[in-house]
Design a protein that fits this description.
With 321 residues, this protein is an alpha/beta fold. Helix 4 (72-84) packs parallel to helix 6 and helix 9 packs across helix 10 (231-241). Strand 7 (161-165), helix 8 and strand 8 (195-198) form a beta-alpha-beta unit. The protein has helices spanning 19-27, 40-44, 48-52, 72-84, 99-102, 114-127, 147-156, 180-186, 204-214, 231-241, 250-268, 270-283, 292-300, 304-318, and strands at residues 8-10, 33-34, 38-39, 63-68, 89-94, 132-137, 161-165, 195-198, 218-221. 43% of the residues are buried.
Amino acid sequence: MELPDRPLFLAPMEDVTDPSFRYICKRYGADVVYSEFISSDGLIRNAAKSMAKLRIYDCERPVGIQLYGHLIGPMVEAALRAEVAGPDLIDINFGCPVKKIANRGAGSGMMRDVPAMVEMTRRIVEAVKLPVTVKTRLGWDQDSRNIEEVALRLQDVGIAALTIHGRTRSQLYNGDADWTLIGAVRNNPAIKIPIIGNGDIDSPERAREAFDRWGVDGIMIGRATYGRPWIFYEIRTFLETGVIPPAPSVIERVALAKLHLDKSIEFKGAKVGVLEMRRHLSAYFKGLPDFRETRTKLVTRDDPADLYATLDYVAAQWGDL
């Protein structure tokens, strides 16, 4: 898998990074995209929701499938099943801070049991033929920020790259991401694998700082992409030219929203495609004045024709902005 200098990654996000959103982010310059995270338990039980998340398309490559779970056996089996779906890599989620996941020992909960984390990773690396990467956090809490040790141990069992989110599990998404430890891992001469930094990358300036100040090999962008997938284009342009391009006009955002809706319906059918797309539609127009009534239509209408008509209304009403 060949990547450009200073690659940009789309973070896996539940209910956000489905195939249609990944398609849009690729159009705007995301170099690598990831599935929503998939439960190993759901996958080995052939749960419909988990199985649907395995669906990937050639237009989004390179693409990774991310898995989470707290038991080694099911995680290995899930990785083998995910490999059959044909992604470019398998990613292990040791970073999700959601209570119901972390308190079971999955996601960032694995950071409380580093030996089990390392053994799970080793077993998955040995089981699959694809590159295996890991996404994790600085540690469980402020008193156990053990990412430097964790990075070395995961490297030793053969992962291809490590993504570090600059918060502990206890922080959830509160406070500022701390990049000092991400930089310490990247600049450790014993670290030979790529280190991808994640956390609070919400502008081209912050992206450049991540590369220039902390030396990371890539950056992963999550929440800032929601309603703003063009952030990848903004960052890439700024990195290459020093100029931040203008944000899309309302007319351009309407066209983007229509394309996104087209792809959601194409990939999932009209009923599910509309239902799971509505959360994105209003996000494209955040900040427009006197938009509440129109926003309500975008997030409640079930008929694709109604949504397209509402988007045409947005263009007509706010198109000069």
